[in-house]
Amino acid sequence: MVADQFGDELLHVDLCAGRGGWQAATAEDPRWTTIGLDIVPMKGVDVVGDVQQLPLDCSPTLLTMSPPCTEFARWMLPWLDEPNPDLSLVEACVQAVDDLDPTWWVMENSRGLHQYWEPARTHIGPYYLWGEWPAMDVDESQIKGKMQTSGEDPAKRAEIPHVLSKALKLAVETHGGVDFQLCR
What we know:
Elements: E1 2-3, E2 10-15, H1 24-27, E3 32-38, E4 47-48, E5 56-57, E6 62-65, H2 70-75, H3 88-100, E7 104-109, H4 111-116, E8 122-124, E9 127-132, H5 154-158, H6 162-175
């Protein structure tokens, strides 16, 4: 278990991290410590573990989560006869919010989850977002239309764009009550 040893540092935990798209902006900033957790080891993953058996014990400033969206995206396609999607990873992410008690949290998924589970708080291009975070200013023109639809590299297809990561980091720092005196 990774225990809370971060004290007053700015801590960003990214669950179902994939390639670490949510972490891009905080990882570039020395004031932040980032921890990416995923069941598959790849770039962006610091802790290989299952969000359903969370091996973390910390209270992050920012918690981001991107549970796999394939089942929800496929469920929406009328020409496919797909079974109802499995919500267990989404539910584990919501439980992680209760367990870790972050200051701010964002869960990203597809329009399919928005229609199947509960309405998202907002969406920015194809990225549907649930959670509690300060208002962020995102230049949607930098999110180039739709995600790639090729199934050849699903992790790349699902990666959060840097512009979204940067906007969230800036919102947390400027509107989220973050005191940079704590980091010196």
